Structure formats: structure tokens, C-alpha cells
Amino acid sequence: MRRKEREIGNREEIEKILKNSTVCRLAMVDEDKPYMVPMNFGYREGALYLHSAREGRKIDLIRKNPNVCFEVDEIVRFRKAKLACDWGVEYKSVIGSGKAILLSTRDEKIQAFNIIMAQYSGREFEYPDEMLEKTLAIKIEIEKMTGKKS
Q1: Does residue 56 sit within a domain?
Q2: Are 49 and 136 in contact (CB under 8 A)?
Q3: Residue closest to 145 by CA, chosen among 7, 6, 52
């Protein structure tokens, strides 16, 4: 990281950002072009959990190449000023990479969906079988991540 004074080196602080964020941007490679999608997610014990339809571009790309990158952020506040160049944003962000694993069994999906729902609601839910049959869960085993704040 170029601006070392902005780096968040504390794992607990990085995990707090992951737990407080509401959108994960997941990046993949499509041939030689990047492809990124914003997703709801949950974080637990070194892994991100996401949900998806069983088919689509994202799933095709993960099947071809499970190496992914992700970004989450938390906007703290906007700094307003008279001059445009003096405006700024105070934020905290995490960028990381890892391997995407498609979870397809009923139990894997329920566990992943409960982690996702706990991220937003703080509780677990029941999932109808017809919904479980139409979906996949994605687990990102995080290999590397860094935090930054401004």
C-alpha cells in the first residue's frame, strides 16, 4: 500500500469493517476483461458467503476460474468544503482475494444463508425447499486482505 499511514493492519479492525458493511463487490475475470458485481454477503471466520441463482455469467466465470477479488467499504462521512478539490470522504475499506467455492447441498446453503441473514438481521431463518433448489451459495475462502482508512 502506497499510503502506509492509511493502512489498517489490525485483523480485528478489518473484520469489524467486514461485519459492518452491507455490500460486497465481487470481481472475476471474463477472458481478459474484469467483471464485477455488487452482492449481499455475510462474513464469518475468514470467509465471505454470498447467494446466487444457479446459472448466469458470475457462476460460469467462477466455474472457469475460482480466483476472485472482493471489496467492501464503509462511508464514515463526507467532508464538505468551499473548493471542489478540498472535498473528501472519510471511509474504511477492505480489499481481498481468495478462492470461490460453489456450495450446492441443502445443509451448506442453509448455513451460508444464515450467515448472510445474520449480517443484516442478526438472526436465522427457515428456507423453503423450493427456494433452496433454485439457488447456490458461494463461499469465498479469503487468502489475503488489506484494510485502508481515510
Answers
A1: yes
A2: no
A3: 7
CB atoms within 10 A of CB 102: 15
User: 150 in a domain, yes or no?
Assistant: no
Residue with cell 451459495: 137
Instruction: Output the CA–CA distances (angstroms, integers) from residue 93 to 87, 103, 132, in the order listed.
Output: 19, 27, 32
Q: Which helix (H) or strand (E) holds 123?
A: none
Residue 49 lies in a domain: yes
Distance spanning both ends of the chain, measured CA to CA: 13
- Confidence (pTM): 0.90
- The DSSP string of 50-114 is EEEESSSHHHHHHHH--EEEEEEEEEEEEE--SSGGG-EEEEEEEEEEEEEEEE-SHHHHHHHHH
Instruction: Tell me the per-residue pLDDT of 86-144, one tens digit each, with 9 for 90 and over.
Output: 888 889 999 999 999 999 899 999 999 999 999 999 888 999 999 999 999 999 999 99
What domain range includes position 135?
4-145
Residue 66 has pLDDT above 90, yes or no: yes
State the average pLDDT over residues 35-44: 97
